[in-house]
Amino acid sequence: MNLVNSKTPDMITQKWQPGARVLVMTAVPVEREAVFRGLRGDQRFDILVAGVGPVAAAVNTAKALATTGYGLVVSAGIGGGFPGQAELGSLVVASEIVAADLGVETPEGFNSMDELGFGPTRIQADAGLVNLLTEALPAAGLPVKTGPVLTVSTVTGTADSAAKLAARVPGATAEAMEGYGVALAARDRGVPVLELRAISNLVGPRDRAAWRVKEALDVLEAAGSVLLEVL
Ligand SMILES: O=C(O)c1cccc(C(=O)CC[C@H]2O[C@@H](n3cnc4c(=O)[nH]cnc43)[C@H](O)[C@@H]2O)c1
């Protein structure tokens, strides 16, 4: 499929069939291990490490999809929560996956590639599965929010950049670095997609000492157990 000429209305995405194989893409080994523990080695799930960033995520997701048939692709890992939207240690399920810095800067502000006719920069997550998860995760004791999850190539490190992103994408809930790459590869194959982010830090002024990576990885593991139950 020619991605440049592919427009959202032409895309046909399969419907999720319970019991189908699931591809879970993580960025780093500690995320893979957390998801693996949650999924308890279930053979229906392949959990891969793609590397950090949207390009590595897209390349490696496309590679996996070229060799094996999957009914669902999940981008999973830790992420930053937008203040007032997603707390540290909570889980975010993306309603849509947004390439938040793919565009052009002008003196008047940022224009997305969608606005310039080179979209899509927003890919919808599978709405039925988002609903299923936003019911099942709290039932398992995990606080969950749903909303747009932004994919950025640079971790946001100032309050000013955080405010600009939040204004650019109303309702922005979390940011991470891989979702859009995973989602674009899935969309190209017509496979439904989800993004799950366990919140390790808040989006804003960089304070690495305040990141709660271990706690977020524990939440990611617990989310893996819920995936195993509901998919
Ligand atoms: O230092 C560590 O232990 C550690 C463990 C896992 C990942 C990291 C990273 O710093 C790489 C960034 C990685 O994590 C995601 N992430 C987490 N928070 C954010 C954020 O606020 N903005 C963007 N990305 C974030 C991202 O998806 C990367 O894969 C460190």
TrEMBL record:
Q: Does the keyword Hydrolase apply?
A: yes
Point out the coiled-coil segments of this chain: none
Write down the EC number.
3.2.2.26
Any one Gene Ontology MF annotation carried by this entry is: adenosylhomocysteine nucleosidase activity
What are the residue boundaries of the Nucleoside phosphorylase domain, all occurrences included?
38-227
The record's SUPFAM superfamilies line, in alphabetical order, gives: Purine and uridine phosphorylases
Family (UniProt):
Belongs to the PNP/UDP phosphorylase family. Futalosine hydrolase subfamily.
Role played: Catalyzes the hydrolysis of futalosine (FL) to dehypoxanthine futalosine (DHFL) and hypoxanthine, a step in the biosynthesis of menaquinone (MK, vitamin K2).
| NCBIfam families per record | fut_nucase, PRK08236.1
Q: What's the name of the protein?
A: Futalosine hydrolase
Q: Which organism is it from?
A: Desulfotruncus arcticus DSM 17038
- State the encoding gene: mqnB
